[in-house]
Amino acid sequence: MKTTFKIPAFLRLKNLQKTALSLWKRLSPPLIAVAAALIVCGVLMLVMNFNPLLAYQALFESAIGNKSAIGTTIIKSLPLLITGLAVTIAYRAEIFNIGVEGQILIGGIFAVWVGTKVTGLPPFIHIPLCMIAGMVGGMAYAWLPAWLKAKRGINEVIVTLLLNYMAALLLSWVVRGPLREPGQLYAKTAEVAQTARLPILVPEMRLHPGIFIALILVVLCYFFLWRTVPGFNIRFVGANQRAAEAAGINVPKTMLTSFLISGSLAGLAGTLHIIGTEYRMLESFLSGFGYDAIAAALVGQLHPFGVLLGGFFFGALRSGSNGMQISLGIPSTLIYVIQALIILFVLASYHIRFGWRWWKREKQMDVFKKEIQPGN
Amino acid sequence: MADLLSQFAFIFTSLDFYAAVFRLTTPILLVAMGSIFCERAGIMNIATEGFMLMGAMTAVVVTYYLGSPWLGALGAMLAAMVLSLLFAVFVVIIGTDHIVTAVALNVFSLGTTSLIFRQIFGAMSRTPDITGLPIWRLPLLGDLPVLGNILFNQSPLVYLAFLSVPIANFFMFRTKWGLNIRAVGETPRAADTVGLNVYRIRIYTILVSGLVAGLAGAFLSIGQTTIFQEGMTAGRGYIAYTAIVFGKWNPLGALVGAVIFGFADALQLRIQALGMGIPYQFALMIPYLFTVLAIVFAVGRVSWSAAYGQPYRRVERSVD
Amino acid sequence: MGEMLRLDNITKSFPGVLANDRISLDVREGEILALLGENGAGKTTLMNCLYGQLKPDAGQIYWRGRPMEIPDSHAAVSLGIGMVHQHFMLVPVLSVVENVSLGLASTRGLLLDLEYIETRLNTLSREFGLEVNPRAVIWRLPVGAQQRVEILKALYREIQLLILDEPTAVLTPGEVNDLFAVLRRLSARGVSVILITHKLEEVMAISDRVTVLRDGRVVETVKTSDTTPHELAHLMVGREVIFDVHKPPLKQGKIALEVQNIKAVGERGALALNNISFSLHEGEILGFAGVDGNGQQELEEVLCGLRRIREGQVFLHGQEVSHYKPDQLHQLGLAHIPSDRLDRAVAVKLTVEENMVASHISKPPYSRRGILNPKAIRQFVQHSISTFNIQTPSPRAAVATLSGGNQQRVVLASALGHQPRVLIAAQPTRGLDVGLTQQVYERLVQERSRGAAILLISTELQEIFRLSDRIAVMYRGELMGIAPVEKTNVNQIGMMMAGVRLEQQEDSLP
User: Fold this and answer.
1) Which of A41, A166, A251 to mutate: most B Cβ within 10 Å?
2) Does residue C483 form part of some domain?
């Protein structure tokens, strides 16, 4: 008897093709959106008398050109990635938690407070304590919009936007007032105690163990959404709230859960950035990262593994734009434009075909009106 | 404590304070009156924040180059309208989510305005030397004792903002177009079957919101002051939206909301000016706090129409 | 009688469905043409093509002999075609005149001319016997009056052809007669009518000719006087129809569900259920008949824990459950087939599998300590898919990709999968074709034989009569009476649907 070598099912040509096709279907809209945004931005740079090719080259090099650049990119991707997960978990329940921006800050303030004011603890207690404080802070700041949304059906977007402004003001006060490092010219908080800091693993890249925490969170987030009852409930509520209610799912509780988890993740993102990288807060701490994270989540199609890619992409954009500003003098606010364009193009990619069909109909109607009007 | 009370008493008895309330209500009221129509037509429009910012930046730039604040205001309206056209294309024609699109556009506006401004005036945010919009002292009314100085010695845009309330109210409830707008927002399909063009009406109302929000932005940069700062609208678009919701989508109700927020804004300025031992950041929080409280206590379950904030699609799969 | 409208080989397909396949028909002046076909035969699609809401893929529309393109409904109206949709195209928060005035040029330019419209409206409503208060706000009007507004709206635009899509579904038998009288008056003045329906009696009662559709094709067009209901039924379904459900004799058990004097308010805050009391026994089907909007939906929601009870009590197997949440009621063996499939029953973006287990997900074996058990879920779903014969490419396909009938099977599988003791079945056959309807009937009778207590809410009187052991009727939120099926008839139920209590009509019993 001849023993036949069996190719595993997933490696067979047909299945490979199928997988490639479905992967392309999922990946192509965000990829096209990103490309389109970069092209439009290139045109914008041309108008402003910059050479877009040089600009993108500078961006690319200072994002992943060398080891330290990659390190910076990863460092910047971590808060984006974790906050992107926060956005994803809320969005799966049809909650647009744009308040992550503020929740990052409040989480950070809590963490700095615990990191600076509590002393004399061994690291294995102090570090988790900071992380818990950060999560509690983020969660606390998400509580009001979460409660309003779940119990009173009030749109979360406006409330969280307003809370973002207030969080920024609160931080501005904190770095000047209660947590200010004395004797410094610039307003900033004191550094967290050595016992509250994560160790640096790769010195030339300044990598810290937060990277593992982030990766674990990606997997946990996937497991939570697709393998647990609360995750199932979140997705069902997001897909059809009234059907969820009829199926016996406690809709307000589910919304509250997802919103609060989202807030605590955002708080954790701020915390890890403090205890892993910056050790303190400035007034500009992670400013705009919440909006970046929303873009990362949308580009990642609101799937944890997609968010992993999206987070890295926007991290690269963040660190690359600094290089662009330094070497070519292109204001780094350009990345706001890129980011906004990417969101718009991702949104459009879901709908564009429909819009096209509509246009064709509209044109028909105009022709028709011309035809019947004179006769009538 | 007594000291604090007397300071508040000082604020509330000062006539300047009430003049400031009128002045600070203006941008919010203008935006609210401009976007109340697209709100009624079923568009959840929080992109006015971005429209305003674009208007504020353009007003300064145009005034700087052409020398006339009036042309600046006109430029602001047109620039904001172009941005609102983009919003309309996305939410009405392509059918994207109103909120996410608006947020993206606001970020876009934040980025482009600072980019263009830095490109023109340099990164040091050197303030260009320009003249702002004039103050009009109204004949006769301006000479009234007490009231004359508070009410009738203001920028023309202040008068326009308050005048726009009865106009908007009349337009909304007494005219054909107002009826059409209300029908389109409430039951787009029914409006469509009687020949109203849902898309066109929605696009037009969005353009109006852009036009007016641009003017409100111009008021911020060349009406109240003569400078542009990055992100200077500071959430006024969102506050105006809240004023509309607070006023249950009625112009008169929105007026009440806008005045409350104008009051809060005036209050925080006074508190900052007086010091009073309150950190200025907390003073700055007052308008936001008022807005959040208004939402918490005055806004009920927001559900005036199932079609609100939803893209409209005429062609839908319908097999019996 | 000249030809007014002719459809020539109209074809319309949707992804995966050929809804209209080369359909040709014609309408003559002043004629009432019935368009007969079961759900899914393509009637509404065809009329939407005619009314400009869908664009046919192929074929030509002739209006008074001239070829026409109708790109939107405004164009249809300006030609003289009006349509009364099954779901009314009215703006609920506006008044009757405001609704009529929408889309018309005003005589006062930009200003509204409501007084002028009101006067003309009054004339019209007197002329055709369509009584309605022009100042009333739509959402406060009963459904029958809303329908009259729709017809008036069309007449105001001087239409020559009126299409009515299943107009009687929302009417009491008495109101149906009134409607038919209006239609006859219209036809006497030369206005043609297309009546879309799947009810044979209506066709026989009102139409001049009938065009029968089946599976998107025209089967035949006949003069009504030359045909019989039996023949029409055969044409419509394509085979002999045996509508009889074999129902074993009633074996009434203990009381399963008891409702005492409940009151509840509806969506707009008005009292929707007023003092409702009844009891439901094991092994029994209690049918709730009545025109939509008389409190049936609120009753459904109250019994399933989805709407708050203001007063009164509900007992499930003797235990008070008045304020229980849906999941608590599910625990006690209550299952629910929601009346509106897309609204409450399924989340179309999620998979067949997820939809089927949603109401049991938090219990073993489907999950333990919050962690899902994919194996147990898969097993249950595979079993249900074969039991209920659900046509799906995979258990992991999104429900949106399924046909309406298969979506309903998913709902049934979810509700019946765990042998419920009490079943609230609201409009269980809405939108299903005859074959599937028959299967649902058989399934419900099986559940009854098993000893389940079934509360059936339906607007289809025939369905109520075929399945129920007792029939209850609600009118404006009040119970008009409950009668055993063998001791009542359509007349008596019809009277109750119009608001005459059972005890008031005792003497009229056969």
Assistant:
1) A166
2) yes
User: Are A333 and B296 an interchain contact pair (Cβ–Cβ within 8 Å)?
Assistant: no
Categorize the per-residue pLDDT at B203 as very low, low, confident or very high, splitting at 50, 70 and 90.
very high
| Per-residue pLDDT at B303 | 53
> Chain B residue with minimal CA distance to C100?
B194
For C448-473, give one letter per residue: b (16+ CB within 10 A) or e: beebbbbbbbbbbbebbbbbbbbbbb
CA-based nearest residue in chain A for residue C398: A239
Q: Name the amino acid, one letter, at A42.
A: G
Please enumerate in sequence order all residues whose Cβ is within 8 A of that of C265, keeping only pairs 6 or more positions apart, or say none: C271, C272, C310
For residue A193, the 8-state DSSP code is P
User: Is the sign of the CA dihedral C183, C187, C189, C192 positive or negative?
Assistant: positive
Q: Are residues C232 and C288 in the same domain?
A: no
Cα separation, A92 vs A221, in Å, equals: 12
C290/C226 same-domain check: no
| Residue C273, in any domain of the structure | no
Q: Is residue C245 part of a domain?
A: no
Per residue in C277-287, pLDDT (tens digit) is 999 999 999 99
Q: Are C418 and C446 in contact (CB under 8 A)?
A: no
- Contact status of C94 with chain B (Cβ, < 8 Å): yes
Cβ distance B101 to A347 less than 8 Å, yes or no, reads yes
Q: Which structural domain range is residue C366 located in?
A: 282-308+323-497
Q: Are residue C198 and residue C288 in the same domain, yes or no? A: no
- How many cross-chain Cβ pairs, A to C, lie less than 8 Å apart? 89
Reply yes or no on domain B2-298 having CATH 3.30.420: no
| Domain count across chain C | 2
Mutate one of A240, A250, A373 to test the C interface: name it (highest C CB count within 10 A): A240
Is A144 touching B (CB cutoff 8 A)? yes
CATH of the domain at C181: 3.40.50.300
Structure tokens at B7: 């300071």
Residues C230 and C297 placed together within one structural domain of the fold: no
Whether the Cβ atoms of residue B42 and residue B309 lie closer than 8 Å to each other: yes
Q: What's the pLDDT tens digit per position in C453-505? A: 999 999 888 889 999 999 999 998 999 999 999 888 888 888 888 888 888 87
Chain C positions in Cβ-Cβ contact with residue A244 (cut-off 8 Å): 347, 358
Q: What mean pLDDT, rounded, does chain C reach? A: 88
DSSP assignment string, A69-115: HHHHHHHHHHHHHHHHHHHHHHHTTT---TTHHHHHHHHHHHHHHHH
Each domain of chain B, given as residue ranges in start order, spans: 2-298
Verify that C299 and C233 share a domain, yes or no: no
Neighbours of chain A (3+ CB pairs under 8 A): B, C
CB A191 within 8 A of CB A54: no
**Rama region for C196: left / alpha / beta (φ>0; ψ in -120 to 50; rest):** beta
> What is the ipTM, given to two decimal places?
0.89
Instruction: Give the SS3 label for residue C34.
Output: strand
User: How far is the C-alpha of C124 from the C-alpha of B98, rounded, in Å?
Assistant: 42
Q: Are C327 and A250 in contact (CB < 8 Å)? A: yes
A248 and C370 in contact by Cβ < 8 A?
Answer: no
Chain C residue whose CA is closest to A363 = C71
- Within 8 A of C325 by CB-CB distance, chain A residues are 248, 250
Name which of B176, B319, B320 is nearest C106 (Cβ-Cβ). Answer: B176
In chain B, which residues have their Cβ closer than 8 Å to the Cβ of C19?
319-320
CB of A89 closer than 8 Å to CB of A268: no
pTM, to two decimals: 0.88
> Dihedral of CA C332/C334/C335/C337: which sign?
negative
